[in-house]
Amino acid sequence: MQDQKRTIIIDYKKCLSCGICVSLCPHKAIEMVNGYPQVTGTCKVCGLCAGSCITSAISMFATKFRDEAIIEEISTANLISCRRKSKEGVTLLCISRLDMIHLAEAIARHGSVAVLSCENDCRNSPGAFEARSKIKAMQIALSKLGLEKERIAFNEEARNFGPVSSEKAELLKAVARDRNVRALVSKMRTITEVGNVYGEKISTEKYERILSDAIETAINMAKILKSVDKEAKVSEIAEKSGMEKSEIVSTIVEMRRRGLVEILGEDELTIRVVK
Amino acid sequence: MSVLIVGGGIAGIQASLDLADSGLKVYLVEKLPVIGGRMSQLDKTFPTNDCSMCILSPKLNEVARHENIEIISNAEIVAVEGEAGNFRVKIRRNPTYVDRSKCTGCGVCATLCPVNAIDEYNEGMSYRSAIFLRYPQAVPKAYVIDRSRCVGCGICQNVCVAKAVDYTQKEEIIELNVSSIILALGGKLFDARRRGEYGYGIYPNVITSIQFERLLSATGPYEGHVFRSDGKVPKKIAILQCVGSRDAKTNPYCSSVCCTYATKHAIIAKEHIPDAEIHIFAMDVRTFGKGFEEYANRAKEEYGVIYHKARVAKIFQKKNGNLIVKYERDGKSFEEEFDLVVLSVGFEACEDIRKYSEIFGINLNEYGFVLTDSFSPVETSKPGIFVAGIACEPKDIPESVAQASASAAKALSYEKERAVVGKKEFPPERDVIGEVPRIGVFVCHCGINIASTVDVEELANFAKTLDGVVFSDHVLFACSADSQERIKKAIKDYNLNRIVVAACTPRTHEPLFRRTLMEAGLNPYLFEFVNIREQCSWVHRDKARATEKAKSLLSAGVHKARLLEPLQFVEVNVVKKALILGGGLAGMTAALELAKRGIECYLVEKDSELGGNLRHIYYTIDGKNPQDLLRKLVAEVESNDRIKVFKNSTLESVEGFVGNYRSRIKTPNGIVEINHGAIIVATGAREYKPKEFGYGHRKVITQVELEERIGRGEVPKSVVMIQCVGSRNDYRPYCSRICCQAAIKNALKIKELNPEAEVLILFRDIRTYGFLEKYYERASREGVIFVHYTPENPPVVRTNGDEVEVEFYDEILGEKLISKPELVVLSSATVPNEDNKELSKLLKVPLDQNGFFLEAHPKLRPVDFATEGIFLAGLAHSPRLIPETISLALAAVSRAMTLLSKDKIIMDASKAEVARERCDACGICVKACPVSAIEIAEFKTRTGVELKASVKKAICLGCGICSASCPKGAIVVKGFTFDQIKSALDGLLEVSA
To answer: Which of A15, A20, A198 has the highest number of chain B CBs within 10 A, making it the mutation to test binding with B?
Structure first.
């Protein structure tokens, strides 16, 4: 852990040098130094880097705005807001700080969550717009789990839904923590609205399809991991998770590539979870 | 000038290596980002079950390292102008967005790329990322970005330590002048969805043969476990042949390789799943290549694979995912249930073939493959453009490799002057004898390959504690260009005289580091390689214990390094002449081609006339005249100043070694002694004189005898032909390959000359492979009757005075029939020459179990012998047709030219050496040496002459068998002496204890 001038804290053990924080920072306050991000400019502690980091390696110096504190606060309200916008609910310095993990936690607690942001008026622009991508992703995840996507919205109506099952809540949390989903979400606005590394824009529909695939994989992986203690056969996983066997098998192939499981099996494909 | 090779599969690779080794500059253009082609996807290869990647990978590395070869990958040909000797070629290289020269292949980018794509290498059965390396051993080993999947997030560029990712790369147009072009475009596999009745793409447990190959592979989706789409291990598997081959609706030709690969799939599947039941459904089992029939027999007898002579009509899926296979046999319908169905898909012409035919201005045949002529099998319709591999006809790996070499031989003829490429000057070597060892150690991270399992920093620090080590460092990639500079700088700054690199395998990387030493003025043998990747990090998980093991290994390396001595490469001169044994089609073709390259040839023929078997062939199946070819070849050979023909002559003795042979030829005018650098064995084979089926009777003759009669104008009115006479039996298990073709050729000729004639062919399997299938189909259409028989129920030939009758069983009618033809024609086996045995002893080259000569490797070295400088061509290798014989002869020429084009050959310095004072001349080493490199020689001493063992360094391979067998320890292999090995063991045990 390193205290970056009492603004943000970067855990270099978790950092993968992906550079997303550098590319997102509205104030150009972060730079890559010797392959790792460092605060070199004037950080305005909006928290966009922390809320977007693909491995959650960035946290805030102020304990109130760390994930643990925010999640704690979420248990009391299903409204997350920029403090300029509302004094109610969970108030953040800026909605840039919003993390998909916060949304998933709120759904888990309350079944729904409203987000209030300054939109065009954001002092850390385009930070407020980045929140849209996070909400979009979690809405896709909700739909995939058979839940109403209106459970998350930029208005207070979202607060009227009832609770969701703890199983689905866990899956939402898994999506929110999935590295690939987080990477795609963090780059979504830039790539669809400004342009990617090749100076091209990708249409929102196409990007959402790619994001949707990543979310589906994340959900399936979480379902499988939930059904396995140490080792399990495909048929056992199918029984516990209710998934189709073919879907389990193709997800396992991807989990193996990511080093999450080992493949075993005499009479049937069996996996062992890698710690 | 130089040669362009289009296609980086095994054919393109072989052609590149041959030409580059013969001193030409080669541009190898590949459509995909990496070379390796179809072979890189294979798990095992038939008929030896060799691991495909294990034999391919060294070739890939050889291409990557060769200073005469430039790989232009991810590229395509846009335009070609000019003519033979001077083509101007325009190539478009598409951006990969990764700088190949910087990428170290560490793979961190791929693990962090957030986008998944279908993995083509695993045939859609797994995923890869948008930045990827097609397969782990790929060359060039550089990741590439799949622009169609990349979202452009920028993560890969940020995480790349080597700074290799470059999003600004643009497509590049490369213009080259080349003297000739070789098309090794490969083929594409049939899309099984076009045979809708099999349900491919709908039923998840119907897969293609290439998918099954990937399932069997350790780098496949399940690491070599075989599972169905629902995770079940299939216990009953059906393999369906001729999917997209021999099929009027799709491709009428035979794909040649599928029957043998299906046999391989069945065998390997049985090894994965011992209790599995495997059925192969084939109309004919076409295992016609060298060793293939024996392979299929093993599948049946040892592995219990069941072959059905049937074609499958339809497949249905059950609710549980199992499949009902409906097939017909002998006019009856059957149904059987299976867990998994594998479709043996055939080859089609490559995807871009139309476009390429226009760009190159070459003609295609009726099936869309590159058109060739059976008397010039590697030439396209345009001079200076040659073809090899599947681009011109479906074929297996050895035939592709042979054709590749053959096309290389042809390409050589357009080279006026040899480009002197890559002759690098090194600084003078520093004399380190007498110096105290000053060892430098470099520990490699190999990205995360080693560093994630072995604590490289600790290992580098540990190295400093070892005696003699004065410098130690750890580097991200020891093989990268900047690391070579670091090593050279350390050698200079610290006055190092021994270098130890702890990294990967000497197999791929030792030459690189040796070169670095040479560039730094050190003898290349003052280098020791410690493998802490394959032998440590890749096989262990526990970091602490893996680090301990790495220490042991490194300690062993450093201990050995202390005793390393400078060694000198062995150089031998090359006599640029060739001895060719056999004056048939293969021998004459080889002699003429070598003579064109300026090589003097001695052509030895045991007969009184040149021509061999070609003298007895009067027409070919495709309507060409072999007698014209014969006359042309004989005239050219006999009038060529560079070819000296010895008729009625045989080889009496041969001495010497690669580049320097001395032979005695027994001629009618006495013994002639000659010097030569290479030998080509082209002694042919002959037709078997049958003992069975009443042969000897006036009306029972062989196919060759029939052809001679027809050649004389005697056309029989009725004929019964019997196939597999003397082949595929207990005495001669192999298939003679050419007889099905010969029978159909003669049958068609009879029908052509007398349409009323009756021709009945009794067969076991009709093996008209490749485009020959057309003639089988034509024969059926023209009324030739084909009746199947089994070896258990063979036809019977009865002779009664001048009459002859054949009794045979008709499976469809279910009864015995009798025919009384004018002639019974036996399709008699092709058998090896009797004198092969003697020749094999003279040349010290092996024969196979059937008495044909045995090549160095059945897949990748089809015309080489294990002994360097001796090559193989024609029927002496195995039974084959005219175009295949010509291919093999040209291939032998190309392989011989890699040697004969050089003035000197440089050999590895690790050779056996005799400590004469300890040698008792007992001769054990002489017998132990597998390559006969040791002899007992006389040495003069002050007191007289004494006998001692002596090593012929040019022959010695440095294997060390002599050293291990010597009772006195008098013979050692330099670089692996007793002291060095003992010291390494001490080092190993010191740490372990």
So the answer is: A198
